[in-house]
Amino acid sequence: MSAPQSPVDWGEVPDPSAIGKPRREFDGWRVLRIVVCTFGLLSLAFWGYLAWPFPMPGILFMIGAPVFAALVWYLFRSEASPIETDVVGKTIVEVALVVAAGACWVSIGHPVVGLVFILVAALSGVVQFRREAR
């Protein structure tokens, strides 16, 4: 049984259970963005583990570097940022964090991984900024 309809409404009657629920579509670029951010944070943690002597400075850098990067990302780059930042500021923050994660790989002796990460992150960043500019 369908809901009563005005004689002026000529379109289809929407499903009442679907009203107010956003439709989620698969977004491959968003998945890539999440993978890039996660890999960047894991790269900083891995660098802290390999580049610094364990236990004391190693643990500090292994935990501190990704936490610091995530905090900077949240404060200046995320959509829920409490600090209003323009496009140039967001770009500077993103480039600095991506280069830092790529440099971690170079410093531990894997420059190809660092270069590939920087290129994939740059592609992901360009697509994200184009979407935000709409």
Model description:
It holds the Pfam family DUF2568. This is Apolipoprotein N-acyltransferase. It comes from Curtobacterium pusillum. The chain crosses the membrane at residues 31-52, 58-76, 88-108. With 134 residues, the chain is an all-alpha fold. It has one domain (27-132). The chain is 66% helix and 0% strand. It is built from 4 helices and no strands. α1 (28-51) runs antiparallel to α2 and α2 packs antiparallel against α3 (87-107). The longest helix has 24 residues, at 28-51. The mean pLDDT is 86.
Q: How would you sum up the major sheet?
A: none
SSE arrangement, N to C:
HHHH
The coarse silhouette is elongated
Total helical elements: 4
E-strand count = 0
How much helical structure, as a percent, in the residues? 55-70%
Number of domains: 1
Radius of gyration: 22 Å
Unreliable runs: none
What share of the residues does DSSP label as strand, in percent? under 5%
Cα separation of the termini: 42 Å
Return the structural class. mainly alpha
Kindly report the average pLDDT value: 86
